[in-house]
Amino acid sequence: SLGLSDEEAKRLGDVAGGLYAEAYGDSLAGVQSVVGELFTAGIADEDLSALTARVLDISEAFDQDFGEVISTAQTMVNNGLVPDMQSAFDAITTGFQTTGQKGRDELLPTLNEYSSTFAALGISGPAAIGLIDAAIDAGAFNVDRVGDALKEFGIRLIDGSDGTRDALELLGLDADAVTEAIAAGGPAAQTAMSEVIAALSTVTDPLVQETAGVALFGTTFEDLGIDVIAALDPAKVAVG
Q1: pLDDT tens-digit readout, 93-103
Q2: Is residue 92 within 8 Å of residue 126, measured between CB atoms?
């Protein structure tokens, strides 16, 4: 199915057989499937055994489909959230450990769908896990909705619309400086995002806070509430 040469098939078969002999996987065919997917993802021979074992551990410990574990890790690497697959598996493991049942159901789809959003806002893979965890602790009812909130924020801050500018000025921020920093990405975007969320969370007038929050986060602000939005401050996650 992979179109391998005899030599390649033997190498991959040896890896799968060795892991299955060490009690990895429910069947040899299952272990072979993981090895094959990692091989087609471009994993070098010297890393195949260790990373296959890692995928099987994650899949079994957290009751996840191994294919989705691998594809999510690839997405994180491709979007620059992590430097390599091992780092992606580290972040995914931590995410499952810290987010509880909500993470079991939604973590991988959220990381798959919103990796580009995290990257655009200068948020690394570990920081993204930290933000999701902080949002759940603050009362987020849905992990995917947290990703939605960040996506809405990124879109609205980059578009520079009158509504966005008015909201930033309502918070006492320099609209031009903030939108330019978000558009630049990287550390500048992360810092600007932190400034906006910090300013929004300290507003004492509920009407002003609601107006600015909806303008910057759309209906996700109404759905999640200020406590969850305040938890999405990258500076707080970095300190944690």
Answers
A1: 999 998 888 78
A2: no
Q: Each residue of 145-165: pLDDT tens digit?
A: 999 999 999 999 988 788 999
Q: Is the dihedral of CA 57, 60, 63, 68 positive or negative?
A: positive
Instruction: Indicate the pLDDT class of residue 238, thresholds 50, 70 and 90.
Output: low
108-119: b or e for each residue (b if 16 or more CB lie within 10 Å)?
A: bebbbbbbebbb
Give the largest CA-CA distance in the chain: 71
Q: Is 123 helix (H, G, I), strand (E, B) or coil?
A: coil
Residue type, 197: I
Contact 75, 111 (CB under 8 A): yes
Q: List the end-to-end C-alpha distance of the chain, in Å, as a whole number.
A: 46
E strands in the chain:
none
Q: Residue 232 in contact with residue 127, Cβ under 8 Å?
A: no
- CB atoms inside a 10 Å sphere around CB 6: 7
Measure the CA–CA gap between 142 and 139, rounded to whole angstroms: 9
